[in-house]
Every structure is written in structure tokens, then in C-alpha cells.
Amino acid sequence: MSPRWTGERTGRTPAIRLRGLTKTFGSVNAVDNLDLDIAEGEFFSMLGPSGSGKTTVLRVIAGFEQPTAGTVVLRGQDVTAKAPFDRDVNTVFQDYALFPHMSVIENIAYGLRVRGVAKAERLARAQEALEVVQLRGFAQRKPSELSGGQRQRVALARATVVRPKVLLLDEPLGALDLKLREQMQVELKELQRSLGITFIFVTHDQEEALTLSDRIAVFNAGKVVQLGTPTEIYERPSSPFVAAFVGTSNIFEDALARAVLGRGGTNSVRPERISLHSAPTGESTISAAGTIAEVIYIGTATRIIVDLDVGKRITVLEHNATASVESRASVSDRRGERVHAEWPPEAIVALDSDSAATLGDAAPAPQGPVGHGASIAPATASKIP
Amino acid sequence: MTSETSARTHPASAFLHRHVRVRLGLLLSAPLLWLGLVYIAALAALLITAFWTVDTFTGQVRIEWTLDNIVTVISGSLYQAVTLRTVGVAVVVTLIDIAVALPIAFFMAKVASKRWQRILVIAVLMPLWASYLVKAYAWRSVLSQDGIFAWLVEPFGGSTPGYGLHAAVITLAYLWLPYVILPIYAGLERVPDSLLEASGDLGANSWRTFRSVVLPLLWPAILAGSIFSFSLTLGDYITVNIVGGTSQLLGNLVYTNVGAANNLPLASAISLVPIAIIFVYLAAVRRTGALSNL
Fold first, then answer.
1. Are B143 and B38 contained in the same domain?
2. Within this chain, do residues B99 and B7 fall inside the same structural domain, yes or no?
3. Residues B86, B37: one domain?
4. ipTM of the prediction
5. Are B97 and B177 spatial neighbours (Cβ–Cβ below 8 Å)?
6. Mutation target among A25, A60, A79, A91 for the B interface, most CBs of B within 10 A
């Protein structure tokens, strides 16, 4: 049975401490010498493209995978060699993994049942958990009789009813449609706040990570390329990879950067920081002339593609709250229009140009560090406290 | 259908496309004819024979309705003893096969790598390529007084069971093992790994996970496998002839009555017994609800 922690540790001991964590599948380094501390009570997201190693880290923390090297320390206790059932962490699976032969209430009570909790108590606690996820009255249903969103809630109730110290969530909202996903995001956040336990959330959806997290670790090729709060990650991306993966970025490199921005290196400007004017306003110090190539209406905003005269295509996001209805009505007429793109100097974010090589590697499976040669950023990219 | 598309297709296929029932009829008529005439009619003819009789002088089957054969089979002490023995052997063979198949199937489905999985499936299927007779005779040689079995266990003070009911059980369990492994393996393949992980994650050790998650989900597959080993054992007589010594099962009685005794109606009546047992067994399985999950 799962051990009970003797003496609550409320001090500075992190909920999870990973040191030198490496997981190799054949010749592929899925996780590459990872150091990570996750604080008590934190909503921590691991964000990255598929194959970046984030799910492997989660599975190593849960105990489903043994790391090739390194340690997993759970609240000061080394659990690296322990089986999943001996760890005080619980997982919400991507496919929910509900037991199809058990009713909803039996599913939720399962963790209590295997711990030997008496029947009356475990049913009461399961019922309570069912009410927390707003599924009162569904106790006797089978998982096959539930919708995706309801299954998701049962999985959450089942994992939280045993009161784990850390809850691991493996892309739990991936299978839901957009509306439900947004609703579940709010509920997840509220649940985490009310339970007060650490959530480790794996996702490839940057918006989800930004919305939910206290801190985000952006993964690429088995490494954490940036660690920070959502604001830090979005406003101050450290590399072209992060700038491109989290949100949309206009990236200016070397010669272009010197020509347009007046400085060298790799720089990024977010589309919503750029405004378009028929003539230079003089308010902003940075201005570039160009022609509108495409106008895409997306409801809350309009995305405008502008070909700058210096030979760079940029994306501009114009919020429809600020634009007049007349200008929105005639969006298609604006193609070919001459404009001046302007943005304040503080909108420019200098990126670590050394890691530019990783930019194109978002999708393919991670290769060994040898494959990337010296172009990968060694120290700056990994841990930022 | 638009004229552009139908213009290029054959008129017959266009006709069949529009007439679903005709299409279905053409598709099913041949197999239904086979099933109806050749399979069921032959079986029915056999069973009807059980209610006929044999002319004691000529040895010819006489179409004269009687329940004598049925009464003989039900009340005769020989038939009762053999029926009980046959059911006992079938149950033991089935239990042995399930006990052996479960770990093998689990290893194949959940532990082995993809490569080993393929190799093991072939290894399980391989014995089916060899003749049934050869395998039975192979066991006769294995279990003989100076066979491999004796050579293996004699240093530890054991001895070969010799030819008899034990040898029949061992050989039958060997013969039907692939039929039990394969459904259980297929059933395990359908259990997602994440269910096993979720069980462990929630605090269940491996044995608990097996009992509470794997076994209930696998129940239909185990029963499917057991139907094979159980019914195949009920009908067997060759293996018992080869390694069974003097012991007889229902199949042997059928064989003697068809051959030596030349009493086809009685043989038919005896063959009704395993059919009745299988029906009882299937009804019992059905009551567990396992068939609806197949």
C-alpha cells in the first residue's frame, strides 16, 4: 500500500526534484540530463511539440518508466526505484483509462478500495469527489455511457479522491472539443486552487499552458529550453524556438534586423504589438513601409499579412474592438494597400541567436545531442531559476 | 446517381448498387446454402438416426421410431460413468490450459517487444501445422517407460504416468493449448496498457491489478478459449486411443458403436450427450453475461 508521509514537510522542500534525468529509447535521448524543481502547490506545465520528451518526464515521475540515469525526489524522498503504487502521485491519463467494467462510483472508489478503506467510507468519499466534479447522479453509469467531458471529470475525481501530493495530467484536455476544453480549463484551475496540491500538466497547446500555469517549462528535443511564468515565456522568449512555438512571432535575423530594427542578432516582435498606419505617425521610433498581402478575419481580431519593402513578410494582429466596423467590412479591399508598420522599441525581444538551429526542429523526433552539433545552446537554454 | 458517373460503370453494377437486397441475396446465397444443406441438414440427419433402430438380423438401420437408444444412454451405468469421466477430463484439461495460457498470453501481449510478440504468435501456432496424429503419437513416445518424461523425472524420484487417463489429460491439454492462448492473447491485446498503469497508479500492486482489472476484462476471452478446449475434449477419441490405455471417453463409445458394434442409431444417441453438455455449458456461460461482451 502507498506509504503515508510521516511528518508533513511544509518548508522549502520542492514537491518534485529531478536531477540529471535522462531517458534513452534505443539511440534516441527522449529526456536529456534534465534538472527541474517543481514547488509545492504549483500549477506547473510542461509544454512542447510531440516527441520533445515532456510526456516521458511525466511517466518517469509517475513510475511507469525507469530513467536511464538521474533521480526523482518526491518531497525530499528518493522514489526513483519505487513502483507506481508506492508513490504518492496520481495520474490523469490522456485516454482517461477508466475501467470499463466498473461503474463511475466504483472507478472513483478503486484507489480507496485497494488501500483497504472500509466500504461505507470509500463510497462516501467517492460520492463527495463526484460532486466536486459536478457529476452527481452519474454514480451508477458505466464509462461507456458518458461523454468525453464527463469521462474526463471521472478521471479527475478518481485521481484526486486518494489525495495525492502531486497530480500528473497527461494532455487531459486533448480529446475534448474547443468549447468544452475552455470550460474544463477553468474548472481545472479552480480544482487545483481548492485542493491546494501540485499539478504537473503536460500539453502541446501553448494557449492552454499560458492560461493555466503558474510556471511553464518549454521542452524541445529532450531539454527544457525555457522555464518561467507565462508572462516571461510569452513576453521574453529566450530563443527563436520558444518565440515561434509559443504564440506567433515575427523574427528578424541579422541583416534584416539591422535594416529594420537598427540592431543585430535575432529579434522577435509579437504581431499584436505592431500597428498599421497610412502614413508614419512619428510616435513610434520603429517604422517600416510595406504592402498588405492578405487580410484574414478571425472574429475577435483581424490577421494582416504585410510584405515589407525590405523583403520580409510579417504578421500583424489588429484587434477588432479598436478598428471601426467600416474598416472591417471592407477587409478584402485592403489587399495591395500601402501601409506603414510601426511598433515601440520595447516590443522588440532579443533572442538567443545561438539556438536558432533548433527553430526548424519543432516537429521531428529528438535526435541525440551529436546530431545538433555545436549549434545547440548549452547553458543559457536550460535552467533559468 | 448522376448520369455522368453511371455512364461509365457497368449496368449490372449500377443495378446492384441501387438494389441493396438483391446484392445481399447474391452475396449470401452460396454460404447460406452450404450452411443450411451441407452443415445443418447433415447434423440433423445424424440426430434423427438416434431415434431409429437396427435390424438385429441384417444389421441394417430400420426407420422405426423409438426412444430405446436415448433411454439406454441415459440409464445405462456404463454410459453414465463414461459421461462423468469425459466431463471430468474436459474440465481438468480446460483448467490446465487456462492456467498455462494466462501467463503465456500476458507475456505475449503486454511484456514482449513487438518482435518477440510476432515470434511467439508463430511459436504458438506452429504445433497446429503438424498432424494431430503425429502429436498424439509423439506424446505416446514421450510418456513411454523409457521416454523423455521418465528420463527427466526419474532422477528426482518421479515416474511416468504411463498410458491412461493422466496421459490423455496431458496430451489433450497440449493439443488444445493454442486454441486457449489465442483468444486470451487477443483479449489482452484489447486491454489498453493505460488501464494497467492507472490501476498501479491508484495504489494496486500487480496481483491486485490482475484480479480487479485484468481478469474481469479478460473473462469473455477466457470463456471463449474454454469453449474450445472443453468441446474439443468432449468429442475426442483418437488421443484417448493412443495414450489413454484402456480408459474410454464418450468418443470411444461412439467409435465402437459405429465400427465394431455396427449400431449407428446408438452411436447417434451417444453423440447427443456431448452436444447436450455443450448446450448446458454455453447456457451457463451466457448467464455470466460473458457472451454479450465477446
1. no
2. no
3. no
4. 0.78
5. yes
6. A91
- In A, minimum Cα distance to B289 occurs at A101
Q: Do B200 and A91 touch (CB under 8 A)?
A: no
B213 at A interface, C-beta within 8 A: yes
**Diameter of chain B measured on Cα atoms:** 85
Looking at residue A292, what DSSP letter applies? Answer: E
DSSP structural state of residue B211: I
For the domain that residue B190 is a member of, what is the CATH number?
A: 1.10.3720.10
A151: nearest Cα among A115, A175, A127, A126: A175
Q: How far apart are CA A33 and CA A64, in angstroms?
A: 19
Q: Which helix (H) or strand (E) holds A269?
A: strand A266-269
Task: Tell me: do B41 and B181 sit in the same domain.
Answer: no
Q: Looking at the 3D structure of chain B, how many domains does it have? A: 2
- Chain B hits for A158, CB-CB cut-off 8 Å, are 202
Is B60 inside any structural domain?
no
A383 or B111: which leads in pLDDT? B111
Distance, CA of B219 to chain centre: 17
- Which of A119, A115, A358 lies closest to A237 in space, CA to CA? A358
**Cβ(A21)–Cβ(A60) under 8 Å?**
yes
Residue-range definition of the domain harbouring residue B17: 2-49
A112, containing H or E segment: helix A104-114
pTM of the model: 0.78
Q: What does the CA dihedral A375, A380, A381, A385 come to, rounded to 10 degrees?
A: 170
One domain for residues B17 and B162: no
Q: B243 and B97: one domain?
A: yes
Q: pLDDT (tens digit, 9 = 90+) per residue, A167-177?
A: 999 998 888 88
Share of chain B above pLDDT 70, in %: 95
Cell (9 digits) for A175: 480529446
Q: What is the DSSP letter of A11?
A: S
CB contact under 8 A, A84 and B213: no
Q: Where are the beta strands (DSSP E) in chain B?
A: 53-54, 61-62
Is B103 within a domain? Answer: yes
